[in-house]
Design goal:
alpha+beta, binds zinc ion, two-stranded antiparallel sheet, about 130 residues
Length: about 130
């Protein structure tokens, strides 16, 4: 992996979870954390989908020729051969690496933990010195 410091990315993930973002990709996280190496960010996010962290879930999202975010498949699952129909515009298209990309979702447990943590630190601020 090309990145040495992932604390920026971890911070961005917490912010996204606090804002209730439910779907995002490596490009968004890279730009929010000022990382230019999108591939490394993607690798790191994939690493965080490991069940032992319980943070993220990866899905393959397909984009129809009209640019609609269309279908979702589990990451690692084989994509169907042949044509699929866009759920929004009914356009038929064939899936390939150019119209399918990885998107990430937060696990509910992680969102809850982040919110609990944020609540605790905001309470700390209210304690008189
Ligand atoms: Zn469409």
């Amino acid at each position: 992996m090309g990145l040495n410091d992932f604390s920026n990315i971890d911070r961005v993930l917490e912010e996204l979870a606090l804002k209730d973002e439910y779907r995002f990709n490596a490009y968004q996280v890279a730009s929010l954390s000022n990382e230019i190496d999108v591939d490394s960010v993607n690798e790191y996010l994939l690493y965080k989908t490991h069940p032992k962290f319980g943070i993220l879930e990866a899905k393959i999202e397909t984009i129809c020729p009209e640019n609609h975010p269309d279908k979702h498949f589990d990451f690692g699952e084989a994509l169907p051969d042949g044509e699929v129909e866009c759920r929004i515009c009914d356009e038929s298209y064939t899936l390939n690496p150019y119209n399918s990309h990885i998107v990430f979702y937060f696990k509910d447990k992680y969102k809850k933990e982040v919110k609990k943590k944020a609540l605790k630190s905001s309470k700390k601020l209210l304690v008189p010195i």
